[in-house]
Amino acid sequence: MMGRCIYCQEKAGWFKGVCQECKGMLQAIQNLGGQFSFRSLLDALMKACPSNSKIERFLDSDIQGQGSIRDIVTARMTNQLAHTMGQPTDMTAKKVKWIREAEAQNPTPNDLPGPVNPYRR
Ligand SMILES: [Zn+2]
Questions:
Q1: Distance CA 75, CA 97 (A)
Q2: % of the chain surpassing 70 pLDDT
Q3: Residues with CB under 5 A from ligand 1 (ion)
Q4: Which pairs count as long-range contacts for 37-43, CB under 8 Å and 24+ apart, including other chains?
Q5: Residues 44, 29: contact at Cβ < 8 Å?
Q6: Other CB atoms closer than 10 Å to residue 79's CB: what's the count?
Q7: What is the pLDDT of residues 39-75, one digit of tens each?
Q8: Domain segments of the chain: what residues?
């Protein structure tokens, strides 16, 4: 039985949980260290993986339910920015995931079609 990659769900090979490209992308993130922009992250990922849709799946994968790789990266960059501005935070991937999901469920009123109802909560 062929194993499937836990990140992109594509065939990973015999007894493997992670395919070659996703392994390369994980390594690329490690190589970036603590300081990087989203742009440099994408550049590094595109060098490791030729498929944009696969990079998207990799970023959105949530292996342990603790937040996707995108959430982990967002948390890391949020903390860096806050630190730079002298207001350290403890943003975690789980918090980013929670905020993202809360926003998806409760869009701001401006995003909703139709007339404004002042009584709507
Ligand atoms: Zn993969």
A1: 9
A2: 87
A3: 5, 7-8, 19, 22
A4: 37/77, 38/73, 38/77, 41/73
A5: yes
A6: 16
A7: 889 999 999 999 999 999 999 999 889 899 999 888 9
A8: 1-61, 64-107
How many angstroms separate the alpha carbon of residue 66 from the centre of ligand 1? 19
Predicted local confidence at residue 51, as pLDDT = 95
pTM > 0.85: yes or no: no
Measured in Å, residue 74 CA sits from the centre of ligand 1 at: 21
CA of 100 to the centre of ligand 1 (A): 24
Structure tokens at 95: 């918090």
Which residues is 2 bridged to in the sheet?
14
First to last CA, the chain: 52
